[in-house]
Amino acid sequence: MPDTSVEQGQHPRVFVADIGGSSIRLGVSDAPGSVRLVESVPTPVDNWEAFGATLEALAARHIGETGSPLVISMAGAIDPASGVICASNVPCVSGRVLGAELSSRLRRRIRMANDAACLALAEAVEGAGAGHDVVFCVVLGSGVGGALVVGGRVVGGASGIAGEWGHGLPVGTSVEFDGMGHVQPVSALRCGCGRLGCVDTIGGARGLERLNTLLNDEQKDSHTLLDDWQRGGERARRTVSAWLALVSEPLAAVINITGASVVPVCGGLADVAPLIDALDAAVRKRTLREFRERVVVPGVFRRDGGLIGAAIVARQDDAREP
Ligand SMILES: [Zn+2]
To answer: For residue 120, how far is its CA from the centre of ligand 1 (angstroms)?
Structure first.
């Protein structure tokens, strides 16, 4: 039974989807700040025909023939000029003009949006960044991402991925552990993008594990490592101290450059509140502006930010239409 487009009250119903490497989640929003998940299905990552058919069936089951547009939040870079998507976690869509191809197949307007941008919009408009004009949202998941929102609008820029601080900005190659000026070299690691020493090589959960292997010559998953750190383990302390020093430098530079007054952090590492507290302290030591209040804060929408941000994109699109 399709969820027909009820347009009661002052907010029209909007449909949104969050497509990741493991699942496609379809949601519906009847009011700002709330999205109800209606169905979640596995993502056909390697089969384009199955991918299109899955979305078509989801739309038929829940949206029906109402012509309602669908905003899709998805990891990957979408070229603003051509609309071509590069999505490493769903190989079957990479290189396609995905929005246009799905619009034609599903016979409704499909608007594609980058997932980090949706998350940032959710935090900036309805989450931890609400009330701030310039919000830089950081994602510390298995890797590193980010997006910039100014005046309630995502700044995509010519690349469509402005705010992507995980690549191109190198982290330092030495760390001082004892506050006495004794530094230890840290080898720059080769990044998946081909460059050397990107923030992405050490900044996310996998990066933290790599850094621990580099400094302590041991294999440990990020959960165990952060538990050890919170219990005062010496090896974990060395790794997290190095991580804080190496990640806070480029993040402070991003704050200097963008003029952001708040940095909500999303992704798995944001669940460890003491880590975000420590990152905030390390960043504020390094910014040019002296911040008296917290700058780096845990995000509010760490699980459903993609869907909530996509609903904001849908309402912003509606407001632009005559
Ligand atoms: Zn890189």
So the answer is: 21
